[in-house]
Amino acid sequence: MAKRCLFRPLPEQRKVESLASAIGTSPLITSLLVQKGITTFEQAKAYFRPSLDALNDPFMMKDMDKAVHLLMHAIEKGRAILIYGDYDVDGVTAVTMVYDFLKNLYPRIDFYVPDRHIEGYGISMQAIEWAAKHGFDLIISLDCGIRAITCVQRARELGIDVIVCDHHEPGDTLPEAYAVLNPKQQDCAYPFKELSGCGIGFKLLQAFTLQKKLAQKSLYPYLDLVAVSIAADIVPIVGENRILAYHGLQQLNTKPRPGLKALIEVGNVRSPLRVSEVVFGIAPRINAAGRVAHASIATQLLLAVDQETAEALAHQVNQKNTYRRDVDSSTTEEALAMIESDTRLVNAKTTVLFKHDWHKGVVGIVAARCIERYYRPTVILTASNNKATGSVRSVVGYDVYKAISACAHLLDQYGGHQYAAGLTLPLDNVPAFQQRFEEVVANSISEELLIRPQVIDLPLTLGAINFKCYNILKQMAPFGPGNMKPTFFTENVIAKSYSILKEKHLKLFIYQKDASYKLLEAIGFGLADYAPLVREEKPFNIVYTIEENHYLGEKSLQLNIKDIQARKL
């Protein structure tokens, strides 16, 4: 797939030299830091050594004082509290954290995770009625609720108070909950807007412990859950998210809770765990429970206190994930075949597909898979409860939530954020929605946004690559949106040799013709089609990241090639 190279502006040399003098690192490292807006010793220290002491005061968030007051009052009066969360990783980790922490302080508490296939996304009317029937006085919703106008109103009618903790985009009208915690509210002064749903729950607990004068360290054992939520929900790893992810990953690699430890073992997830291992090794297994069965099993797994119980539940969750992989693979094949058999769909600016019998639990994954082949805003729909329901995914730089909002007259409900959303609509409206969504996107998206971007931080010569440089690059982790692994561009590279692995990967040994000749190993995953560009020792250009390779006990540096370009003469 063609890529659109985006070079970051080169940093001011004056700032690079000043920072290099202050922190004693190479121009390469300081250039990367200045590109991130880091220009002083104090800023560099905060970046390389994120401190939990630097977290924002939770009471800066709108309604936090009201939420904490209600929670403390409910505990004092012996009211029954229900912790309600979405069925994805962010929701499950949030429910686990808030329920487990409060359960250790107060007995009249339970949790509720909705059934994706029966209740759908967010707070359900079924859950409200269930809570009333079982005598709950307070519901704390996590990772959902910001658009649950009707359900929150029903809860009030039944005498149930609601605290909404959500990070999704608010609509024009907010639910009439006792308190709404969402920094994306227009009148919320909280300085960091990109917390995960579990992160919002963490801030609630942080405020609660401050008000109760409990030790803040009592929250730190839950940072592994927060880190998993941040990685899985693809929120920017900057600001508070970077602090929470940094310390949460440390915990994952040293003392994870039994449920996460069991998942790591059953999934053979490579150590040490980084954001990528969480995204591809842990998150899909937690998600699988809610996709093909019920997410409560994943919650029980994360709540397990002994390793034997955790291992038994982890094997069940892993089996769900194996089934999920088979289903999403076959569904993706069907979806791609639908596109490729229709010239109109091939040439469209969007992908909107519907099939009655697709599994509701994998439509989000299938949407992402389709974008890998056809890079454009994508909606995958299936039938559920006599409605069409599905998931929306976007491309970098395009706000799909706004596009969905422009189709609101055709929808029963929708919610999400810039790059991902969910929706439900009448079956009869599917053709009209397909047409309207295509019109909205076609009229608002630029052609360049339909080409996958490849951001490049700095140009680099192969001779500058060494372990000293790499060891500092590693300390810039955790990597993810907003703090991606540094990506470099090198011109006039020559392949001394190459081979094709498994018919799709390109293995290279490369060098540059200069005084600092160095032969480096490189791998281009999925780049076998680029083999003609590297033949006959013709110079070419590469875009890559730097990695460490371990083989037979030996360590070496390896380039992970993201793109290969013919040399421009």
List the helices and strands and how they pair.
Layout: E1 3-7, H1 13-23, H2 27-35, H3 41-48, H4 64-76, E2 81-85, H5 89-103, E3 109-112, H6 125-133, E4 138-142, H7 149-157, E5 161-165, E6 179-181, H8 197-212, H9 223-232, H10 239-254, H11 258-266, H12 275-292, H13 296-303, H14 307-340, H15 343-346, E7 351-355, H16 363-373, E8 378-384, E9 387-393, H17 400-405, E10 413-416, E11 420-426, H18 430-444, E12 452-456, E13 458-459, H19 467-474, E14 488-501, E15 505-511, E16 520-524, E17 540-551, E18 554-566
Parallel strand pairs: 1-12, 2-3, 2-4, 4-5, 5-6, 7-8, 13-14, 16-18
Antiparallel strand pairs: 8-9, 9-11, 10-11, 14-15, 14-17, 15-16, 17-18
Question: Could you provide a short overview of the structure?
Answer:
This protein has 569 residues and is of the alpha/beta class. The chain has 19 helices and 18 strands.
